[in-house]
Every structure is written in C-alpha cells, then in structure tokens.
Amino acid sequence: MNSLREKFYLASGYASGFCIALIMVVILAQIVGRLFGFIIPSAEDVSGWALAAATFFGLAYTFHNGGHIRVTLVIQKWSARPRFWQELVVLVFGFGLACYMTFYCWHMVWESYIFEEVSHGYIPIPIWIPQVPVALGMTALNIAILDDLVAVIRKRTPSYQQHEDELNLEEV
Questions:
Q1: CA 1, CA 32: separation in Å to the nearest integer?
Q2: What is the DSSP string of 139-170?
Q3: SS3 of residue 126 by DSSP
Q4: Dihedral, CA atoms, 37, 42, 48, 54, nearest 10 degrees?
Q5: In Å, what is the CA distance from 106 to each residue of 25, 115, 141?
Q6: Is 118 helix (H, G, I), strand (E, B) or coil?
Q7: What tens digit of pLDDT does each residue of 104-138 get?
Q8: Measured between alpha carbons, how far is 139 from 5 in angstroms, rounded to an integer?
Q9: Alpha-carbon distance 37 to 150, whole Å?
Q10: Beta bridge partners of 126
Q11: What b/e readout covers 60-95, taking b as 16+ CB neighbours within 10 angstroms?
Q12: Which pTM does this prediction carry?
C-alpha cells in the first residue's frame, strides 16, 4: 500500500513535469512557426492551461516530499507533545481547506460543462477540459494531506517531516 501511495505522488509529479515540457514544446513551436510565417492557434491558451495544470499537479508531490515552505524556527525546539498538537491542528485545518478547494474546483468543472463554456481563442476549446487537471491536482493534494493527517493521528512521522529532517541532517 505504501508503494502505491509513493507511485501516486510520483505520478502527480511526473504529470506536473509533463505539463512544463508541454509549455516548452508549444512555445518552441510558436517560435519556429513565426520563423516560417505561420502561427500556432491558441498557443497562449494552451500554455496558460498547462501552467495551471503543472502547478496543481505538483502540489501533492511537493507536499509529500517536504518541499512546501514551513516555518519551523519555533516548533523544532518543542517537545513531542506540543509538536504533535501543532501538527494535528495544522493538518486538520489544511485538510479542511483542501476539501473546500477540491469541492469547488470540481464544481467549477461541472458548471463549465453544464453551461458549455468555451475558450475565446482561435480554437474554441470547452473550458472544462483544461479545468479537469486543476481539480485532479487538488484531489491529489487532498489525498496527500489526509495521508499525513492519518499518520499524525497514528503517532507516526508525517512524510513531509521525514524529508524535512533529512534535509536538516544534510546541512549539519
């Protein structure tokens, strides 16, 4: 089960990387197209959507690997009991916020689908299509936060803290 979760977070990171590579390909195609006198229709739209997808797909992978900024100047000096409660409160709050965001991301996709919204670029693309990766990325972040919340409740070290401790050991 643990390796399945690791693969899930890694897949989210790869999806983020793929979207960054897609941005590069679209921009290079646009540059080459200008040299030969043609344009790539809706290249700006596709690049913007890929940037949003890369950002949201990268959230779960970054959270799991301890890449999000945490101010630990005070809490690193705390004993185990206060640190447990601090981690628990922050993860519960973060999970609640992630649930809220995930619900409304999927609601946004549903509304765009129902109202048949399309982009205003050269190519009329249904807006729900580029919104799905954003909602999937938020869902992955939700799972990552829930995973660490359960770990803290079970008195285990959350994944982001394990990586944080590894980084602290490397600095010494």
A1: 46
A2: HHHHHHHHHHHHHHHTT---HHHHHHHHHHHH
A3: strand
A4: -90
A5: 28, 14, 14
A6: strand
A7: 999 999 999 999 999 988 899 999 999 999 999 99
A8: 14
A9: 56
A10: 118
A11: bbbbbbbbeeeeeeeeeeeeeeebeeebeeebeebb
A12: 0.87
| Residue type for position 17 | G
Q: Which domain holds residue 121?
A: 2-171
32: Cα within 13 Å, side-chain hemisphere? 6
pLDDT digits (tens, 9 = 90+) for 61-88: 999 888 777 766 677 778 888 888 988 9
Tell me what percent of the chain is helix, strand and coil, each rounded to the nearest 5.
75, 0, 20
How many structural domains compose the chain?
1
Residue with tokens 């944080």: 164
d(CA 47, CA 29): 12
**CA–CA separation, 47 vs 88, rounded Å?**
38
Residue 163 confidence (pLDDT) above 70 = no
Tell me the residue type at 138.
Answer: M
Which phi and psi angles does 102 have, rounded to 5°?
-65, -45
